[in-house]
Specification:
The structure is a homodimer of 360-residue chains. By secondary structure, chain A is α+β, with helices and mostly antiparallel strands. Helices cover 43% and strands 19% of the residues of chain A. In chain A, helix 1 packs across helix 4 and helix 2 crosses helix 3. Strand 11 of chain A pairs antiparallel with strand 6 of chain B. The structure holds a DNA duplex (30 and 30 nucleotides).
DNA sequence: GTTGGCACTCTCGTCTTTCGAGTGCTAATA
DNA sequence: TATTAGCACTCGAAAGACGAGAGTGCCAAC
């Protein structure tokens, strides 16, 4: 059944009001706020119907109405859109965010921190990388017992490791190894680094000291690390400012889930198109701990096989429209900044595009 | 005034019991638990004196007694020690911790996470570095528009950055710059990198494209980053399992302070001797937000000018003896593992001592 | 100095009452 | 037929009443 225009307006008003006040909203309040010229009695009739349709519910008789997950869903899918256009005032927020993005490095923790600050909800950022390979392999000889491994990956991040040996190593051996790794270990994924490959490299380098396997172990570690999704939560404490989490046990459960690396999306629902916004309302979540919370997720594109997600968690009574708008602006900003890293947009000096490990 | 032996025993019993139950403890409970053969009436007299001496207080008449900060202080300074020896049962915990330490990388966030897990309180880890210098400077030429900066610092960590230029750079220029930076920029601190030094390097390298300043900016950034104390909080949510933080507002305030990078120690009280344990009880804290919480801090030595601190935050009713014991074991383990990085203790292969950036 | 006894105090949980917001229904109205 | 005003009704939240119980302080006896 399709809702009448008036029912839609009323439903939207209930959601808006409830999001604002966190209190069940009564017919009288709607009669005033939503600008449709009818009395509270009419509204009451409509509300009763919305309840029986499943969009609203009342905590108990003689209380106002509260949206059901289905009501929120309707709001997010159809009603909110109309407001979204009026969100162009957030342009100035956009500007503020861009300013922040400039100071921001591309590590996942600062992304999540920023998202949490902007939305005032706990935020979780994560990246999913696929099929990262080594683009370049360098070994810097420091002294006879020490060298530095430097690896540049296909996503243009650079990893390094300092290796110290209890034995002395010939500088020429290091050079041979460097050349061999650069030819043999580039362009392959971690599961292609087989004992066979390592052995043949060892022989080719004439390495009698087992250094090859140390370096290979590093290569495997870096590749598998880079292929593993990482996540970072921040702003858990903001949960506590929400009235629905005044119960410390409830808050504790959810926060525990979040900081335990709990995922926001079911594994199969990996992020798809960049720029897409996904909303999961209450029971739509698979994780038991999220069943009475909502999640808004934005996807951004961080270039070469790397997709990022920024998710925000809050009560089902969440300011979906604002959060979605903010997240999509943020995701767009991140895509712009991280994604097309190949076209340096600005002048020289420290406006150069630089990428690399965060400096701790 | 010095406390009688019996008063000390009673005070210790009150603290122990209160730590365990979080409820004001009455005379009767003590008469039973503490094995001193006297009746509750006697205890009551003693308790009354302890109150007037300032070691205990009662929330209201007809309630049991609760330790004051002064009472906790006495407990921590004198009474707890005697128990500490009996803590040798924690040997097996020690073993467990060592096992964890082996898998642990040396980044501050995993240290804090581990501390929080072990103690079940929120934990904050931070490092204070002083006077870090560059030990070695390498520039890896990738292609005409791209090179990688690799810097090895005096604390044996390695940092890197990928630089992409909108213009082509001659490989020989890169080599010249590498040599110049290696001679001119090593062994100095960030404030010694002056415009003068940069200019002379630029001229010496015959760099007409301003690349020198980009590299110098990286050097400054790395050095100042490394010199800046970093902190990392984890396990904030564990706060919520403490009865004294059932008030969401109170919990929110403290968690906000912690995740806002609030420091646990007053700036002048920087960590001194490694292995030292510091306890700050309630109002002894300077930060307003910590005034009714307690903090236990252990210092560890991470080698070359790098000191680390692990702090744990909880209610004044904190299990000081256990927390202190656990933290000191943890700190000792960290010092052992991170500190003397110059004597590779074990065999070859992947038991080599390796240090470096965490791989994201 | 210690102990048993006892009256006293104060909190906590339970129960009751009151208050008011909001409803559903009905009858009147456009 | 849709809307509205009116009104009795419901139910939860806040406020008070009250008994139970834990613990104290004090006193007199040991």
């Amino acid at each position: 059944m399709v809702l009448s225009e008036r029912k839609k307006k009323i439903l939207a008003a209930v959601v808006d009001e409830y999001v604002r006040t966190a209190e069940p909203v009564g017919s009288k309040a709607i009669a005033q706020s939503a600008g449709l010229g009818c009395s509270s009695a009419t509204i009451r009739n409509e509300l009763a119907e919305l309840v029986s349709l499943g969009y609203l519910e009342q905590p108990h008789t003689s209380a106002g109405r509260v949206p059901t997950p289905m009501g929120y869903r309707m709001y997010v899918n159809e009603l909110m859109q109309k407001q979204k256009l009026s969100l162009e005032e957030t342009e100035e927020l956009n500007r503020r965010m861009n300013q922040r993005l400039r100071e921001l490095d591309d590590t996942i923790d600062s992304v999540s921190r920023l998202a949490s600050q902007l939305t005032d909800y706990p935020a979780l950022a994560l990246t999913t990388r696929t099929a990262v390979t080594i683009k370049r392999f360098d070994i810097i000889y420091v002294d006879a017992n020490t060298f530095i491994l430097v690896v540049m990956l296909s996503d243009n991040t650079v990893k390094n490791k300092l290796v110290r040996l209890p034995v002395s190593v010939d500088q020429r051996l290091v050079q041979r190894l460097s050349a061999l790794f650069n030819s043999g270990f580039t362009g392959i994924t971690d599961d292609q680094i087989t004992p066979l490959l390592i052995n043949s490299t060892e022989r080719a380098a004439d390495d009698t000291m087992g250094i090859t396997s140390v370096i290979a172990a590093f290569a495997i570690e870096v590749l598998s690390d880079a292929g593993t999704p990482t996540s970072f939560v921040s702003g858990e404490n903001r949960l506590l400012s929400q009235p629905e989490f005044r119960d410390p046990d409830k808050a504790h459960r959810l926060m525990g889930y979040l900081s335990g690396g709990g995922y926001l999306l079911p594994p199969d629902q990996t992020p798809t198109g960049a720029g897409e916004i996904k909303v999961l309302i209450g029971p739509e979540n698979v994780a038991e701990e999220l069943k009475d919370s909502s999640v808004v997720i934005a996807t951004y594109d961080a270039g070469d096989n790397t997709k990022g997600m920024i998710g925000v968690v809050g009560p089902t009574r969440m300011d979906y429209s604002t959060v979605a708008a903010k997240l999509s602006i943020l995701a767009a900003g991140l895509s712009r900044r991280l994604g097309s890293g190949d076209a340096p947009p600005e002048g020289l000096h420290n406006k150069l595009i630089v990428k690399g490990d965060k400096h701790e």
